[in-house]
Structures are given as C-alpha cells and as structure tokens.
Specification:
alpha+beta; Ubiquitin-like (UB roll); four-stranded mixed β-sheet; 1 helix; 4 strands; 19% helix; 28% strand; globular
Length: 83
C-alpha cells in the first residue's frame, strides 16, 4: 500500500474515531469531502459537508485544500480532526 496512508480520524461533533486509508495523490479538499460523506454514511448523524477541512490533532496545523496529501506531513499513523 505505498500509495495510501493509514490515518486516525477524529470527528469531535459526534465524538467518534475512525481508522482509514487515504490516497496520497488526492487533494486535501477532495479527501475532506470524501471523509465527511463516509462519516455521514457510517454514523447516520454527522451531516455531510462540502466545505469540510482537516486539521492535525497533535500539531494543530490546518491543511490547505489545494495541497495533495503527499505535499503535507500526513503519514501513516497521523491523527487528523475533521471539521
């Protein structure tokens, strides 16, 4: 799985955590919207958002939607927060 990284995603609105693989060649904006839809489907409570954003849970860095995963410090085991 060299083209995907395993992340831990925390969603504070519903206080849930998920472990997911995400592709490294996609944009943060695409991934954030995709993760929002996945959480919506899994929880049935979280509303899917088009303007969702990702933040590093440990450092507090908010990732720009125009960067790819590969261009950031997101690696295997990174903990992210979905807003």
């Amino acid at each position: 799985m060299e083209y995907k990284v395993l992340i831990k995603l925390y969603v504070p609105e519903i206080e849930e955590t998920y472990e997911l693989y995400i592709p490294v060649n996609k944009y943060i904006g695409e991934i954030a919207e995709f993760l929002s839809r996945i959480v919506n489907n899994l929880s049935k409570v979280y509303p899917a958002k088009k303007n969702a954003c990702l933040c590093n849970r440990r450092t507090g860095v908010i990732y720009e939607r125009i960067n790819t995963i590969r261009q950031t410090d997101i690696r295997n085991g990174t903990e992210l927060v979905l807003f």
